[in-house]
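Sample intake sheet
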Amino acid sequence: MQLTNARQKVLRQLQSRQGRKKGGYVVCEGWHVCGEAVQAAPEWIEFGVVSEAAAAELWCGAESDFPVHVVTEAEFAEFAQTETPQGVLLVLRRPEPAAASVEVPFFLVLDRIADPGNLGSVLRSCHAVGLRQVFATAGTTDAWGAKAMRAGMGAQFHVALSIFDDVLAVRDWLATVADCDIWLTSPHAGIDCFDDAFALAGNVLVMGNEAAGTGNVEGARHVNIPMPGTAESLNVAQATTVLLFEAVRRGIL
């Protein structure tokens, strides 16, 4: 099926975050991520684009519920958002932020995470441990951007993301529905995360911005990951993964 001018325009708009927000679409690329979309959220898919080389391996053909356009390798490279494209992408209707829910083992808050690779990796770890909802503050990078999607490996289709203005807004919302303690992560201050005094179940865990860390929240406590070496800190995605699997070890997840 020939790719129309209107859909070519959509693909070009999706090269930028502003274009993704304005157009109401997002793009996922690569066999694995597209496969996750087909399995987990087929109703979101608007259309697919594949290169001529990839068309022979296509997991969805004439029987798919959405149109698939076959283009030349050069044309696909123009629309791709990866340096070494695999020849397959899907355009999806941009999902709305998820409604906040208290039906979680604990409340993971991502506070202004700036790097899309970090955000995608955090969501991938959440998917791995079975945490189905995450909260993010305004200023957190776009979870549906190309780099975040690649790092998440399809986790965005399995982990709901709710957006709040800031950590205080999360606290104020929780005050109306639950009685929670707030834990702010810190490179060195506070309680060792492997100490039983770190009460995570039913409470709030805030992972801070890569450079600025977490903001101050009155009454919050601090928790750290012990580092016997001389590194200043862990990458936020690494730190989140350690804490998520500590929750698994405790049987919280």
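Comment: The mean pLDDT is 92. Residues 107-250 form a domain with the Alpha/beta knot fold (CATH 3.40.1280.10).
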